[in-house]
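Query structure, 394 tokens:
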């Protein structure tokens, strides 16, 4: 039988980055001593008030179809949150509720892009971005953020990548995998490029609640940007709700109408009991995210302190998120070899940075989403592994 070439077309190195992670999960499932640092799945339980709201909704019979674009009370709550963060108006009609940030990005790709269009994306980027953009038939043009410059964007390099085919700029702020938070000067420069070339900006802000130092700012709040920005958000990371699949897209009302037509054909709305839980999550957001942020910052510092002693590693201190990037080039291994051998020899799984883009080749990404003692053990195993590499090379 013949199969469509669609899934082959949207595959590639990034989409295949999860092989070592899958191997680690399988090993852990067999009871082996594997420590999984290859995914950003919070180890916290979803806060109890959120769970209770969902259970009550289920018991009251909220198990039927819900509005395709999301219930108006939830959309209004998300809009109010966005209005505060951007210091600009936002209505419920500017919000579409979707099953997670990844589906929001997928919908943005299908609603904004045609075959032959091009999207300029800051590299490194989340591993499935390329597949998501290519699903529309558009091309993704990677703009490197040099490791030597701390993976920060260079507006001149972004500008040079713009062509008549360019339709949008895709950015993650805060960035996954690097943890970089764009500053006001960088955001203003990107916004100016978008306005000058009449481009959309697709802004993934999933990690905006997990910032440790610099203040996070949304590009949609800059002059002339609300009408050309799609802001993607989620409760997955900030509220330990990865399995709930609650995300959203915020943009011009006309664009949200396109999202809704797509949703009608694909998802037909998020379950009502999940939407009720999401409302409670937003109601307790400040206390929830502050508590998680304190824990993640402590773990970030623990991981960076322990890994600083590892031979041949150079770390980038993340400004946000739940990952730390480590430069492994001085070990003599490629980042792919490092990830494979680290897991096979120590049971610790990390992700090869090359999967996030050429800019991160030679780096690996480690998550700090496990409890402190286990994280310390993982870091010690990494340090022992690098010492063994140095000893073998001597």
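Result returned for the query:
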């Amino acid at each position: 039988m013949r199969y469509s070439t669609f899934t082959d077309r949207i595959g590639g190195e990034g989409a295949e980055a999860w092989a070592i992670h899958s191997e680690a999960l399988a090993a852990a499932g067999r009871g082996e001593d594997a420590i999984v640092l290859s995914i950003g799945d919070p180890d916290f339980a979803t806060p109890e008030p959120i769970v209770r709201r969902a259970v009550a909704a289920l018991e009251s019979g909220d198990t039927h179809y819900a509005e395709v674009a999301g219930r108006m009370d939830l959309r209004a709550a998300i809009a109010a949150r966005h209005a505060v963060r951007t210091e600009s108006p936002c209505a419920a009609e500017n919000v579409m509720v979707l099953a997670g940030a990844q589906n929001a990005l997928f919908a943005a790709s299908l609603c904004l892009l045609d075959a032959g269009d091009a999207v300029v994306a800051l590299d490194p980027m989340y591993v499935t971005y390329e597949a998501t953009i290519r699903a529309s038939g558009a091309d993704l043009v990677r703009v490197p953020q040099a490791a030597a410059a701390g993976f920060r964007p260079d507006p001149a390099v972004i500008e040079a990548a713009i062509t008549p085919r360019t339709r949008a700029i895709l950015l993650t702020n805060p960035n996954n995998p690097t943890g970089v938070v764009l500053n006001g000067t960088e955001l203003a420069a990107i916004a100016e490029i978008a306005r000058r070339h009449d481009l959309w900006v697709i802004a993934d802000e999933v990690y905006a609640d997990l910032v440790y130092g610099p203040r996070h700012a949304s590009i949609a709040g800059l002059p002339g940007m609300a009408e050309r920005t799609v802001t993607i958000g989620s409760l997955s990371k900030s509220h330990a709700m990865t399995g709930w699949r609650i995300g959203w897209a915020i943009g011009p009302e006309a664009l949200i109408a396109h999202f809704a037509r797509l949703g009608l054909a694909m998802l037909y709305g998020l379950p009502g009991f999940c939407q009720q839980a999401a409302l409670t999550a937003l109601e307790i957001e400040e206390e929830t995210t502050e508590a998680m942020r304190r824990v993640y910052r402590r773990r970030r510092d623990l991981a960076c302190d322990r890994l600083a002693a590892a031979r041949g590693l150079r770390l980038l201190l993340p400004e946000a998120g739940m990952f730390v990037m480590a430069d492994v080039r001085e070990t003599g291994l490629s980042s792919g070899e490092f990830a494979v051998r680290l897991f096979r020899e120590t049971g610790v799984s990390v992700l090869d940075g090359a999967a996030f883009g050429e800019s991160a080749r030679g780096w690996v990404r480690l998550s700090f989403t496990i409890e402190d003692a286990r994280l310390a053990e993982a870091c010690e195993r990494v340090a022992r592994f690098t010492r063994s590499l140095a000893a073998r090379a001597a």
